[in-house]
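Changelog-linked ticket: adenosine-5'-diphosphate example.
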Amino acid sequence: MLRFEDVSFRYPHSDSSVEHLSFHIQKGEFVALIGSNGAGKSTISRLSNGLLKPDSGTVYLDGTPTTSIRTSQIARKAGFLFQNPDRQICQNTVREELAFGLRLMGLPEQEIRERTREAIEQFSLDGDWFPFSRSRGERQRIALASVLVCRPQLVILDEPTTGLDYRECTAIMDYLTRLNREEGLTVLMVSHDMELVSQYAGRVLVLTGGQLIGDGATHDVMRDQPLLGRAHVLPAQIPALALKLDAGAKQPQFEDVFTVEEMFETICRLRKEMSATAGKGEVLS
Amino acid sequence: MNLLQYLPGNSVLHRLNPVTKLAAAFLVGICAIVSHSVVFTISLIILLLGICTACGLGKRALRLTRSLLVLGGMMFVFQLFFVRSGDPLLSAGGFTFVTRDGLSSAVLLGLRIVATMLPLMLLFAITEMNDLCGALVKRLHVPYRYAFIVTTAFRFVPLFTSEFHDIEDAQKARGVEYDGGIIKKLKLSVPLFVPLMMSSLKKVDAGAMSAQLRGFNLRTVSSGYREYPFTAADIGCILFSLLLVGAAAVL
Ligand SMILES: Nc1ncnc2c1ncn2[C@@H]1O[C@H](COP(=O)(O)OP(=O)(O)O)[C@@H](O)[C@H]1O
Ligand SMILES: [Mg+2]
């Protein structure tokens, strides 16, 4: 779906750059891109949708190099949600805002109405809202809805949950996960919220100083503390705790523990085993 | 590169009183408007460039002149075709393209643009907005409120530019295409200007509140510690500018 082939890019009049990036995101994956501030995450997301063109190397989107098609054509395949929804929202009502992207695609009015109505329902919005005066989380939801209503194959989210509270955040993430599972939507999410990443992403790309230093299943990346340390990010709490509990143990028991639920189950199981052995001990003595 | 951006330095020009710089910029601008002589206007531009170079601002001034020449060149072309009086200089197939009056007034207009804008842009290059604001309040007793409006407006320019750029990116990513014809571009200005206006209003709102919280409305002439004395250099600069205006009127 999205393939970077030895991509380098440097901002003009600046030392900041990304260098020799190569990765391949398959259709239907949910990938997180992590790294500290200034690592080049936003640069990669801008390279992905053709807002920036690589200096060398090629970015392929669905098999086509981004340099050979226009940004507006890319926009039909790849939706993009910025950190700040206010740069996107430009219409007076939520209904018009959702219809805006569809109009740009030149769809018939009937279908635009149909899809807009559907999206408003799915995202629990109200078509008559004045988008500018809604809360931050609602504006982000409106922006996301106006991206997804165009039914892109790939959606790129640049820190989509900054400034949202927990409920707003899960609402957005759950919706993305469902589309990812049910409709095979490919998701590339830029984030430095490791809890969010460990909960939702299936694969993680680790970036530091413009270079890709890690690429693997979320589970493996989360347990690779030296790697995360090099990227100046803290691992999510549960994998970190699991790692600590296993440290020095002959037989790691928390290897597959990844969520609160799994941690709870493992501890319960161990507790049961322990009291069982303890019980046996009493009988024996 | 932002043409209105302040460029720190310690030259004679930099150290002039901000009020002097403002007055001199206006006087030189008036010179360029009053004068009807091409030679005088060219000399004025060269003189300005010379002074800037002497003060270590040569590169900046040359760059400004270059961008102004583009604007001046555009005005030159317009004027060339709009003025129809005078002897024909270039005609083909019974249609006069360029007349003598057209050419001379076009040259003058182009040069005037450069000569009036150059000192104003230099003013921004060598004056910090806070200083200009402070000096206006201290020396000219402009109410702080008004001085603040003007200087803040200028400070917002680079902010708006970068915000505008980001909004353009965001809209491009949605599929808005800005490489179409002019009509299409105008129609598509809504997605650019609405978000810009909204973010500006929010910024202004937040700015006003923080200013108020820090006692903005209590500020008067006596609130600032910094003094802005006039020196001999200031008097010299003003006299010289006045002399230039006189010369422009006579020549
Ligand atoms: N338009 C730009 N011009 C020059 N440098 C930039 C520009 N945008 C970002 N940078 C620089 O590129 C580096 C990477 O930025 P970015 O991709 O935004 O990082 P991240 O999103 O990971 O925080 C930073 O050092 C930043 O200062
Ligand atoms: Mg970023």
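Closing comment: Example verified and attached. Chain A has eleven helices and ten strands. The pocket of magnesium ion (ligand 2) is lined by residues A 41-42, 158 (CB under 6 Å).
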